[in-house]
Design a protein that fits this description.
The structure holds 2 protein chains of 2 kinds. By secondary structure, chain A is mainly beta. Chain A contains no helices and 11 strands. In chain B, the strands form 2 sheets. In chain B, strands 2, 4, 5, 6, 9, 10 and 11 form a 7-stranded mixed sheet that branches. In chain B, strands 1-3-8-7 form a 4-stranded antiparallel sheet, with no helix packed on it. The chains are: A mainly beta, B mainly beta.
């Protein structure tokens, strides 16, 4: 059974960079899968941020205007989200998930990140 | 971007009811459509993918159908564990987008 676990700071200062890591267990980031980040602002719907493949190919939501970057660390079996120039609008629960490209079958439990001024 | 619109936003129902949630896409997503269940404070759980394929371990009372721009999630014989929020998501093109969610509450 694949398990995903998000980690990282729960509080980020406005204009700073949000960095979250998703550790994968029971599976490998080197397998033929796509690894995604999704967020959910308080009381709002789900928003896809982007994804990365086992080969390092990535795709992002244009709504983030180039602020997001996802990388994969095969040695640590994890992948990371960086989101630059954050504002209060980036306050959300951030989820990592596997294979939204065919229906996300495994999700992390979520990490609340609050952007403070 | 393809916009996904769910209706209704909230649905009140009783245990044993049959309910239907609709998801409409602003353009065709063929059958690249998934449905998720989300409970408060929890991650979404995949119920159905490819419009009508039941994820392993999901009860057969969850039924997905549709193609193109109109999709439905039907839950027959609603159980207490089914009171939650349901989201649709297309994965036809980038960016993937979700519906705004439908909350199923106890009548």
């Amino acid at each position: 059974q694949v398990q995903l676990q998000e980690s990282g700071p729960g509080l980020v200062k406005s204009s700073g960079t949000l960095s979250l890591t998703c550790a994968v267990s029971g599976g490998s980031v080197s397998s033929s899968n796509w690894w995604s980040w999704v967020r959910q602002a308080p009381g709002k719907g789900l928003e896809w941020i982007g994804e990365i493949s086992d080969r390092g190919r990535s795709n992002y939501n244009p709504s983030l205007k180039g602020r997001a970057a996802i990388s994969v660390d095969k040695a640590k079996n994890q992948f990371t989200l960086s989101l630059t120039s954050v504002t209060a609008a980036d306050t959300a629960v951030y989820y990592c998930a596997r294979d939204l490209v065919r229906g996300g079958d495994f999700w992390g439990q979520g990490r609340l990140v609050t952007v403070s001024s | 971007d393809i916009q996904m619109t769910q209706s209704p936003s909230t649905l009140s129902a009783s245990v044993g009811d049959r309910i239907t949630i609709t998801c409409r896409a602003s353009q065709s997503v063929t059958n690249f459509l998934a449905w998720y269940q989300q409970k408060p404070g929890k991650a979404p759980k995949l119920l159905i993918y490819k419009s009508s394929t039941l994820e392993s371990g999901v009860p057969s009372r969850f039924i997905g159908s549709g193609s193109g721009t109109q999709f439905t999630l039907t839950i027959t014989n609603l159980q207490p564990d089914d009171f939650a929020t349901y989201h649709c998501q297309h994965y036809h093109t980038y960016p993937y987008t979700f519906g705004q969610g439908t909350k199923v509450e106890i009548k």
